[in-house]
TrEMBL record:
Record keyword Hydrolase present: yes
Upper taxonomic lineage: Bacteria, Bacillati, Bacillota, Bacilli, Lactobacillales
PANTHER family: 6-PHOSPHO-BETA-GLUCOSIDASE ASCB-RELATED, GLYCOSYL HYDROLASE
Enzyme class (EC, first level): hydrolase
Protein name: Glycoside hydrolase family 1 protein
EC number(s) per entry: 3.2.1.-
UniProt keywords, alphabetically: Glycosidase, Hydrolase
Family: Belongs to the glycosyl hydrolase 1 family.
InterPro entries from the UniProt entry: GH (IPR017853), GH_1_N_CS (IPR033132), Glyco_hydro_1 (IPR001360), Glyco_hydro_1_AS (IPR018120)
Catalytic residues (positions): 373
Domain of life: Bacteria
MF-aspect GO terms: hydrolase activity, acting on glycosyl bonds
Alphabetized PROSITE patterns for the sequence: GLYCOSYL_HYDROL_F1_1 (PS00572), GLYCOSYL_HYDROL_F1_2 (PS00653)
Length: 479
């Protein structure tokens, strides 16, 4: 009996974000987004330490302005994804490509046509698009004029945007995500929510009110989407990060519980349609009073069809975290786990944590799940191979292999999982550090952190490995 457990029709593929790989930041009527003025990445070095560098105008130091030029090379890249056998490709629509300032009434036709062309190219190869509506790409005008999601006005602008793209692509896209890593707004409010208030001046009241606005907008988008096409599958997307207690001290376990509730808050509301009791206590103890507009309570009841998430690492938690080494490279905090190895950027590698996440989400919600980000950022070295330049990235193959074996274990546990998209199937600009040297892809892109390079694409060793994984529907993992 085969060990392979992946179901027939499992959606294998890769995931990207417009701001990290499209480039063409001002082409064909596109407006600026918050990404265009954060040349060093959008994430503080440590939670709450300082805001990222924010410039007044785009500058040449920002690799995201050109990305890897998918905007002009999408046919070449999609052909490579098809060669690997992708069943699904996750991408985001750049809000400011459709509504340059974010608050216009009429959309930019050139922006709409670009995504029409991309979806048509995917369809040519039988690849399903999985589209994120807002992936850290709030139009810059909405950040500067309205303070991003701190303003309720953004709900109306977002509704206009999603209604436009839902209607335009209702026969081309089935799978949708409302916000990328929606819980990250608590830790990176400018990148995630377009909130221009400096982090150390942003009150908990204003931050959680912004969270409420996003949650209402997400539920409203779900309602609008199902009205436009009842066959749409609309999900939320959260940053998943399981936590372990540093010791068996009950206070350490309580620290784990409180940390995980910060993240469960977002999936709980998306899946259950109401605020959980534990957050009500938190609000009361922190003098937070969420302002509900008439109808908000009913809108929140428009729950998602599935839960999607990113998974890169786990963390450890302690009642007295100052007694331990802090986790490096993690925007959500936590302390280092002595039982785990770390990537070059300090992200702790924990394949078993992915199985735990899958079981915890499924046990909690009994909704289908979708892993929409998982991968290893590393400094790849391009070498001459027998078939031309390549990268011997056995470390990436090992990382993905171990994680996918644990996905298989979760499937044996009874978890319902629709698909798996690796983060960055092609090298792109890092969201957290704005580097290209932090590479994730199966495809190497000749571009460097100083902006030099030809943008030529080369297949890494992992390209053919993932191709075999897909071709065997996971059977390759059990050889």
């Amino acid at each position: 009996m085969s060990k392979n457990i992946f179901p027939e029709g499992f959606l294998w593929g890769g995931a990207t974000a417009a701001n990290q790989f499209e480039g063409a930041y001002n082409a064909d009527g596109k407006g600026l987004s918050v990404q265009d003025v954060t040349p060093q990445g959008g994430v503080p070095a440590h939670p709450g330490e300082h805001d990222p560098l924010i410039t007044q105008e785009p500058n040449a130091d920002n690799l995201k302005l050109e990305g890897i030029d998918f905007y002009h090379r999408y046919k070449e890249d999609i052909a490579l994804f098809a060669e690997m056998g992708f069943k699904v490709f996750r991408l985001s629509i750049a809000w400011s490509r459709i509504f340059p300032n974010g608050d216009e009434i009429e959309p930019n036709e050139a922006g709409l046509q670009f995504y029409d062309d991309v979806f048509d190219e995917l369809a040519k190869y039988g690849i399903e698009p999985l589209v994120t509506l807002s992936h850290y790409e709030t139009p810059l005008h909405l950040a500067r004029q309205y303070n991003g999601w701190a303003s309720r006005d953004l709900i109306v602008f977002y509704e206009n945007y999603v209604r436009t793209v839902f209607t335009r692509y209702k026969n081309k896209v089935k799978y949708w995500l409302t916000f990328n890593e929606v819980n990250s707004v608590l830790h990176a409010p400018f990148m995630s929510g377009g909130i221009a208030t400096p982090f150390d001046e942003l009150s908990k009241q204003d931050l959680y009110q912004a969270v409420h606005h996003e949650l209402v907008a997400s539920a409203s988008a779900t309602k609008i989407g199902h009205e436009i096409n009842p066959d749409f599958k609309i999900g939320c997307m959260v940053l998943a990060m399981p936590a372990y207690g540093m010791t068996s001290n009950p206070l350490d376990q309580l620290a784990v519980h409180e940390f995980e509730n910060q993240n469960y808050l977002f999936s709980d509301i998306h899946a259950r349609g109401k605020y959980p009791n534990y957050i009500k206590r938190f609000f009361k103890e922190n003098n937070i009073e969420i302002q509900f507009a008439p109808g908000d309570e009913d809108i929140l009841k428009n729950t998602v069809d599935f839960i999607s998430f990113s998974y890169y690492m786990s963390v450890a938690q302690a009642h007295n975290p100052e007694d331990y080494d802090s986790g490096r490279g993690n925007i959500m905090g936590g302390v280092s786990n002595p039982y785990l190895e770390s990537s070059e950027w300090g992200w702790q590698i924990d394949p078993v944590g992915l199985r735990l996440v899958l079981n915890n989400f499924y046990d909690r919600y009994q909704l289908p799940l979708f892993i929409v980000e998982n991968g290893l950022g590393a400094k790849d070295i391009l070498i001459d191979g027998p078939d031309g330049p390549t990268v011997e990235d056995d470390y990436r193959i090992d990382y993905l292999h171990k994680h996918l074996v644990q996905v298989g274990e979760a499937l044996k546990d009874g978890v319902e999982l629709w698909g798996y998209t690796t983060w960055g199937p092609i090298d792109l600009v890092s969201a957290s550090t704005a580097q290209l040297s932090k590479r994730y892809g199966f495809i190497y892109v000749d571009r460097n952190d100083d902006g030099t390079g030809s943008l030529t694409r080369y297949k890494k060793k992992s390209f053919n490995w993932y191709k075999e994984v897909i071709a065997t529907n996971g059977g390759k993992l059990y050889e």
